[in-house]
UniProtKB/TrEMBL annotation, chain A:
Belongs to the bacterial solute-binding protein 1 family. One of its GO terms (biological process) is transmembrane transport. Keywords: Periplasm, Signal, Transport. One of its GO terms (cellular component) is cell envelope. PROSITE patterns: SBP_BACTERIAL_1. InterPro entries: Bact_solute-bd_prot1 (IPR050490), SBP (IPR006059), SBP_1_CS (IPR006061). It is found in: Cell envelope. It comes from the Bacteria. This is sn-glycerol-3-phosphate-binding periplasmic protein UgpB. PANTHER family: ARABINOSE-BINDING PROTEIN-RELATED, SN-GLYCEROL-3-PHOSPHATE-BINDING PERIPLASMIC PROTEIN UGPB. Transmembrane segments: none annotated.
UniProtKB/TrEMBL annotation, chain B:
This is sn-glycerol 3-phosphate transport system permease protein. Residues 72-262 form the ABC transmembrane type-1 domain. It comes from Companilactobacillus bobalius DSM 19674. It comes from the Bacteria. Belongs to the binding-protein-dependent transport system permease family. CDD domains: TM_PBP2. It is found in: Cell membrane.
From TrEMBL, chain C:
GO terms for biological process: transmembrane transport. The chain crosses the membrane at residues 31-49, 95-116, 128-148, 179-201, 221-244, 287-304. It is a multi-pass membrane protein. Keywords: Cell membrane, Membrane, Transmembrane, Transmembrane helix, Transport. The keyword Metal-binding does not apply. It holds the Pfam family BPD_transp_1. Gene3D superfamilies: MetI-like. This is ABC transporter integral membrane subunit. Residues 91-303 form the ABC transmembrane type-1 domain. PANTHER family: ABC TRANSPORTER PERMEASE PROTEIN, INNER MEMBRANE ABC TRANSPORTER PERMEASE PROTEIN YCJO. It comes from Companilactobacillus paralimentarius DSM 13238 = JCM 10415. Belongs to the binding-protein-dependent transport system permease family.
Amino acid sequence: MSKYKKLVLPLILVLAVAVVAVFGKTLSTKSAAVKDNRTEVVFWHEMGGPAEKSLMKIVDGFNKSQTKYRVVPKYQGSYDAAIQKILQTHGTGTSPAVFQAFDISAAQMMHSKFTVPVQDFIDKDGFDASKISPVARSFYSNDGKQQAMPFNTSQPVLYYNASLLEKYGITPPPVSPSYSDITRVAKQLYERSHHQVKGMTVQIYGWLLEQAMANAGVGLTNNNDGHTGIPTKATINNGASKEFFEWIRENQKAGDFMNYGSGAMAGTNQTTGFLNGKIGIYIQSSASISQLNKKNKNKLGITYFPHPDGKKANGVAIGGAALWISNDKSKAVQNGAFEFIKYSLKPEVQAQWQKDTGYLALNKDSQQTSILKGLYKQHPESKVPSQQLQEAVPNHFNSGILMEGMQKTRQIEQFAMESIYNGGDITNALKDADKKIDDNLTTTNRANGYH
Amino acid sequence: MANIDERNVLKNIFSYFLLILLAVVILVPFFIGIWTSFLPTADILKGNYFSTNISLTNYIDAFTNTPILRYLGNTIVVATITMFAHLLFCSMSAYAFVFLDFKYKKFFFALFMITMMLPSEAAIIPNFQTVKALGLLDHYSAMIVPSLTSAFGTFMLRQSFMQTPKELKEAADIEGLNHFQIFWKVVLPYNRISLITLGAYSFLGAWNSYLWPILVTFSNNSRVIQNGLKQLQSEETFNNWGMIQASAAIIVIPTILVLFIGQHYFKSGLNEGAVK
Amino acid sequence: MLKTSATDVIPEKKVEAKQKSKFKLTANDKYYASIFAGPSLFLLGLFVFYPMFRTLYISLFLTNTFGNTTLFVGLENYVKLISSPDFVSSMWVTLVYVVGVTFFTIAMGLLLANLASQKLPGIAIFRTLYSVTMGVSVSVAAIFWLFIFNPSAGFFTLLTKMLNLPTINWLANPTNAMWAIIITTVWMHLGFVFLVFLGAIESVPTTLYEAADVEGVSKHYQFFHITLPMISPTLFFISTITIIGSFKSFGLIDLITKGGPTNATNMLVYRIYNDAFFGGNYAKSSAEAIILTVIIAFFTYLQFKFLEKKVNY
């Protein structure tokens, strides 16, 4: 057997592996897009379900509006899962040119230096950013520079079943309710329906705890929620969060509180319960409005996120996500990405987006469009989240938490909420949460060399 | 005698009762899932299971509004290639361990056995980086290449190959066949039942894999069905139960039909692999 | 169709001894071996062995925002894990789940297989029905059961309401959530386990039962003293793969509970995934992965040993 022949078979096998690899590669890219001369702008997003449909409308609208660029949308799963994908694929062929990253990842994205500040394009292009909601913009700016452009912005609001309240002769909660206002309605609903309807629920969702703190004007971490320096200590164990949980506990004891848990379907189950008149009040993102309106046979009531008794509401922070432009693509692609961002912020586009989803239109001019005027005429309560957004005066505590590891922090918050909902001691749960977050913070800051 | 007959009849009735009861318990999730897939979501949410508004709307929605067909296609491609790769590479290495003598054979076999002890779940971080370095992210090959072979498959086929009758090999030697010919013409045909079992096992394994595809797929072009179903549920809005049940039914009905048809075959195949 | 009988199971050692005399080895074997075993060995090296060492390496460092190793800390990640009540509780939860799933899967599988092995008219229908969950994948099982556990419109809720029983909040309560996951897992695996057991029970020689019948031994006694010992190799095979499989459970948790409530279903593999791909803490995740590896290796080894000793009845 010659030496040459000895090599043939192993070579064939290696080739076979390579063929499989290449085959798999071409097969999966083949149907990706229609080929033409346009510059492709890969856009990663996390809008699933109905919101994805209306996002696709925006993308299609952009692609039809011009001939230079083509935005290729790619769904990445949940907000949570997307962050590591973005960080881990940076610099590879797979990475996006423009991506949607949610509020709590802002610190991580800024520190990564994987993105080009949107401000650079705004300056070059002469885009009038003053039209865009300042509260939303301030959330994603740092050192006076716009880092990312807010896109889908929501507000946490309190939903109530207005028909049920009417049926049982209960006065609806006021515009900016206190905890005890809500307790009153919830208890009345539970009693007057002869325990057929549960009064209220607050989902086990870290975002809601953060908002309760924001609305009470206290921070989650030191250094003013990270706005004046890298956070080093968590401060969840404070009077405001205790008050929040005591409010929940009071309703649990009265029997009018429903706990939907924290599973994959907790949010859905909660909404289902609300739509079916099994629960009277719940707190959720304003992004649910259009869905609630579409499927609701009952009258929908919306009011502001509740605040502690005897205090004025500080205002809540925005939720949702922003669009960031990656710096690992060519200038042409980056420009295309900004063109898309500009398009997505047009008054009509934002107005339609609000109507379709419930995310708030960020362009001031959107309010003058016939789309939103029509919406408010049909559903006057849809105006409430925008009003809440406008009334808030931005300060450190309602402008988001600039801290790395917020995803882990949310899980820790949720753990605390779960143990409290299941009867655990409030102070202990909060102390425990602080300790866990501190541990993570210490590790993160050490690993990254922050001091 | 009559007494014994009576007892037998009673016993049979009891057996049937138990058999039916357990069948109902096992099938209830299917019935509910498939039945509700024909109902409008509004009725499902009200708990109105006895609604008469039966329609195929949910199915039409699932096919037209979601990329479910693409997910199915992706999954079939990935699972089929993985299956054939397992059949090829596992049978080859099993052949080496049974019919060939080489230095450190025991050591290499021990290595294979150790691999069976190492969970792939523990290797996701470095493997992600390897696949990224190879430029395979978001392609079918990201799901195929890391699982082209399997230590379990090698082990299973080795056990089976060891029972290939001596006479066959002797006949092959007389005919002057080389190892490739013996492998292809004698060993593989003789062990086809084990190969089919491994094939089914590998296909199902790839079909069911969930964690790894989440990590390496980034678009609908390569996303597989197990992850795809999760996309139908969304983050900040709530979803359409009727359509979700319909998409689950779309996936499960064909697999179950295939299983019904091939049931007997699967059973003997599975058992073969299990005890050999 | 080939039928296996319990006597087909030849202890490994005997086979090996037979094998030696069976075939003559040739000088070219080394060359052939590299072709036949080479590709698998290379692939396993690249995608199993290398990542193991790499994971071990990462677990001795701290990792930054990008997942790069920055600071060597020795065993600090492990010490932190073991001393964290969170992680310890995760380990317990995993253990409870593994024991629960293994026990109920085997018990139910045996019950079904034993029932379906009776010679009754129409039994084939039941055999087909019982094996039906074999065609169910994680995502489908999760969807079906999520709907059943749904607290407002789910089947269990309606059922308890119809019977005027208090409704159980399946996924909000830690104990119930664990049960929910166990039930779903067992249900999903049942079809496969049933089929394997049925095949094994059918291959037990009928003469054994006939002899027992003649002696007037009860069916109950026959099951424990004839069937079980005769199918012990299958029993061990199933317990191995069920234990190892449930230690690695991920999909159902991700789809149903996401590890909650209060980490009640936050099992090891979910933690590994969660800490790395959500939390961005690759070092912690790697340390957990190494712990998982040690556990899986231990059980696999135990099962191999057990298999070797006990199966030679």
